[in-house]
Write a structure and sequence with these properties.
about 400 residues; alpha+beta; 7-stranded antiparallel sheet; 6-stranded antiparallel barrel; 4 helices; about 15% helix
Length: about 400
């Protein structure tokens, strides 16, 4: 609530030669050479085995990073309406993505992974390791007497669980070209207007398979997504426009626009309605060797900042999941060295960390990320990696 490309080496077998040994001396010489070769091979394998053992020992000596509690972290915190899991994790931890490692669920609670307004979060230490648990609140009887300055806020029965992304969350769609081209599309409205919004009746063509009261997402083609490393076509990114309900099916169907995030226009496509996305995923980290590239900015021209979204060229097939956190890097710019002996020598500066991003929607080949923290703006071509790298 955040690859290196493999290269395959092909080894061609040597040509098998068949010869007739005419002299015993030649045979003896070949036997000696074969024995020497075998000895060399055995020595080489032994050296490689020793190198592997040393590397394994060095890896074992490297300690795994551990979650670190902030000095300013409260011993107890009452969750308030509007808090996000990321905010809460950042309040307690220097590195918020360690939250799953210190979160201690309460077995007596029906769904202990959810956090509600009014819950009291407390820090405990078990064998010297920090743990945070729900100690009191609307769902738990306090195990300790509360100090007078702590005020527990009653939770309304219809209160929504705290989500990771809240108001800046949106529902993206990445489609293949064929699906998008064959989808129903807005043909016109009842009058001559060229833009439409909630409450408007529109005519939809190519809608023979629709049924009355079917709901659809209205989307607009945004751009083709291409992997900058391999040239692979990763899909078509779309802009969310709104929602439409079919009133009367047919080749030219009638539909009402129910919701609108932006104005709909002629040619916008209707794609099947998807269930609401579960926003209660846990914060975590991607696979250790994860490295991706920002290939598209959502609803932006050249750069984005905090609480804005982008698309990276890594998805479910690469082990990316909702809630995984990564660090973003920008490539160092090129500058001319004014002191170098070589005239007009250009030097590339080191890359710089520019912020933290979190995955909030994954597809097979790509994922949408949200900038949770930023020191500078992010652009297409910037890299995202495992946060410990």
């Amino acid at each position: 609530m955040y690859k290196t490309r493999a290269t395959t080496t092909f080894v061609l077998p040597g040509i098998l030669l068949s010869v007739t040994l005419l002299l015993g001396a030649c045979a003896a010489t070949q036997t000696e050479e074969g024995a020497a070769t075998a000895e060399d091979t055995e020595a080489t394998q032994t050296a490689r085995s020793e190198d592997t053992s040393r590397e394994t020992a060095r890896a074992a000596e490297t300690p795994e990073p551990e979650p670190e509690i902030r000095e300013s972290a409260p011993e107890r915190y009452v969750v308030r309406e509007g808090d996000t899991l990321w905010d809460i994790a950042a309040m307690f931890l220097r590195d918020p993505w360690y939250w799953p490692e210190i979160w201690l669920v309460n077995p007596e609670i029906e769904n202990p992974h959810l956090i509600y307004p009014g819950d009291i979060l407390s820090i405990y230490y078990v064998d010297g390791e920090p743990r945070i648990t729900v100690d009191g609140g609307p769902r738990v009887r306090p195990t300790k007497r509360l100090s007078p300055e702590i005020r527990v806020v009653d939770r309304d029965e219809d209160a929504t669980p705290i989500s990771t992304l809240q108001s800046f969350m949106f529902r993206p769609q990445v489609l293949d070209d064929e699906t998008l081209e064959n989808a129903p599309y807005i043909l016109a409205s009842q009058d001559e207007r060229v833009i439409f919004g909630p409450g408007d009746r529109v005519y939809v063509r190519n809608a023979e398979d629709t049924q009355q009261y079917d709901l659809y997402h209205i989307v607009r083609r945004d751009g083709e997504l291409v992997d900058p490393d391999t040239g692979e076509n990763l899909g078509i990114a779309t802009l969310p426009i709104g929602e439409a309900e079919i009133v009367e099916p047919g080749n030219v169907a009638r539909a009402n626009i129910r919701k609108g995030e932006r104005e709909a226009i002629r040619g916008d496509r209707l794609v099947p309605y998807a269930d609401e996305q579960d926003m209660l995923f846990e914060i975590g980290r991607p696979p250790e060797d994860t490295e991706g590239t920002i290939i598209s900015l959502f609803d932006a021209i050249s750069q984005i900042g905090q609480l804005q979204a982008a698309i990276i060229n890594r998805g479910e097939r690469d082990g990316i999941e909702n809630g995984q956190v990564m660090t973003a890097y920008t490539a160092g710019r090129q500058v001319r060295d004014p002191v170098s002996d070589r005239p007009n020598e250009v030097v590339t500066l080191p890359e710089e960390s520019v912020g933290t991003v979190m995955v909030f929607q994954t597809f097979e080949k790509v994922s949408y990320i949200l900038v949770t923290e930023s020191e500078r703006t992010l652009r297409e071509g910037d890299k995202v990696r495992h946060p410990s790298r």
